[in-house]
Automatic annotation (TrEMBL):
<feature type="domain" description="ABC transmembrane type-1">
    <location>
        <begin position="264"/>
        <end position="480"/>
    </location>
</feature>
<dbReference type="InterPro" id="IPR003439">
    <property type="entry name" value="ABC_transporter-like_ATP-bd"/>
</dbReference>
<keyword id="KW-0472">Membrane</keyword>
<dbReference type="Pfam" id="PF00005">
    <property type="entry name" value="ABC_tran"/>
</dbReference>
<protein>
    <recommendedName>
        <fullName>ABC transmembrane type-1 domain-containing protein</fullName>
    </recommendedName>
</protein>
<keyword id="KW-0813">Transport</keyword>
<keyword id="KW-1133">Transmembrane helix</keyword>
<feature type="transmembrane region" description="Helical">
    <location>
        <begin position="316"/>
        <end position="336"/>
    </location>
</feature>
<keyword id="KW-0547">Nucleotide-binding</keyword>
<dbReference type="InterPro" id="IPR011527">
    <property type="entry name" value="ABC1_TM_dom"/>
</dbReference>
<keyword id="KW-0812">Transmembrane</keyword>
<dbReference type="GO" id="GO:0016887">
    <property type="term" value="F:ATP hydrolysis activity"/>
</dbReference>
<dbReference type="GO" id="GO:0016020">
    <property type="term" value="C:membrane"/>
</dbReference>
<feature type="transmembrane region" description="Helical">
    <location>
        <begin position="390"/>
        <end position="423"/>
    </location>
</feature>
<keyword id="KW-0067">ATP-binding</keyword>
<feature type="transmembrane region" description="Helical">
    <location>
        <begin position="257"/>
        <end position="284"/>
    </location>
</feature>
<dbReference type="InterPro" id="IPR050173">
    <property type="entry name" value="ABC_transporter_C-like"/>
</dbReference>
Amino acid sequence: NVLFDSELDEEKYQKVIQACALESDLAVFPAGDRTEIGEKGINLSGGQKQRVSLARAVYQESDVYLLDDPLSAVDAHVGRHIFDHVIGKNGLLHNKTRVLVTHGVHWLPWVDKVVVLTDGQVSEVGPLDQLMAHNGPFAQFLSQYLEQQEKTLQIEEIKDSGDHRHSKAVLSDLEIENNRKDIFERLLSIESQKSDYTEEQDVAKDHTFHASKEKISKQVSIKSDKDYQVDAQKIIEEEELAGGRVSWTVYTTFGHLMGYISILVLTVLFLTVFVSELVAGFWLTYWVDSPLLNNASIPADSVERANENYFYLKVYSVWGILETVTVVIVTVVKAFRHRRVARIIHDNLITSLLACPIQFFDATPIGRVLSRLSKDIGVIDLTLLLWMEIWLHAMFCIFCSIITVIINLPVLLAVIIPVLILFYIFEKIYLPTSCQIRRLERKWLSPVLSHASESYAGTSVIRALGKETKFMRKAEEKIDFLHSMTITGCACERSV
């Protein structure tokens, strides 16, 4: 997060860490600067995120730095430290062009030039003393701001002392001088009065915050297929893969959701379609081989030949109509029942995700969740019943072929039995391998989606630091590995 694919210069790295006030944070992290940062910096506070981003920018050694209020989420003494050691005239960026966007007017005495924006347009430009001497809108605004700050501070002092009788008198005596020296002094005094905490107290608070967070992260357990603990050093948990064949529990769960009666009806309808197709093919063969139609002595326009053709055509049409009607019924039943199953599974998945504790999303990449909601749900919606239909058709064809061979050539039964045994052995090897390849394909889809999501969210940082090529190369590597799993799975299927 700091080096961002740059070469490590230990001396420079330590200077950047010290200048950006990250030493105390790294000291309380369980693995120091090797501690894994979760997606979107879930284990960092707002101030830590700003300081890490600033350290990353400082380490890159650019010529121009655009700093969009980098001190807004840090404590007063930390902001003072960062300004002095990074942004200020004696900081690491003293020889760089720095454009600081800030609402903190107490930093103005130390900047070279002030650019005032009014309604999105530049209204005044120049050193602070010049703008104050000009007594324009900015000088008037600054005077009003200082007056309000002094009133607030004096009211707090009166309340702390318990003396409310002189508050009106004190407020009525407040007068704001417009000379440059007084403005500088009051800016400095307001900044010092805002810093009520000593550096030691803030460091102690930071230590308490990190210690509490570390303690919580060690105690929280996340429930998934297997309970696991969130490691303080490793936020993102490795995805676990099942092994071997698909468990029968998966089939029984799907059957329960689909309805066993519906599965039985669909099976009968599928077999009816296959039988109709097979019988229609046999009938067409008998039609072509009809002795009457092949008798050359019978004229082509004879009544006998016409009646014979009409008879075969009627029977063939009956089987064709039966097959068509059955296919329509299968399609309708399959669509309604399958949609019900897909909706139930999707709703259960969404309900489970919404019921997960926040720590689950801290330890689970968004790509893994997207993979479950896209690719896995897509398999249920589109391909599951299709493969079941293909399997039934293949089993029916094999069964019919074996019966046909046994009827016509019983002697081949001695060959069929060893072939079936070899097929069973091959199936025992193929199915676990194929299932594992598909699981790996699903697993490697998650990093691709996570990388795409993270790259999209951090596009501004990637472009600013000129790391587009690195992220494109990293994305290509992940996609290549995913495609290698896909191609291996396809090759495994084709080999069968």
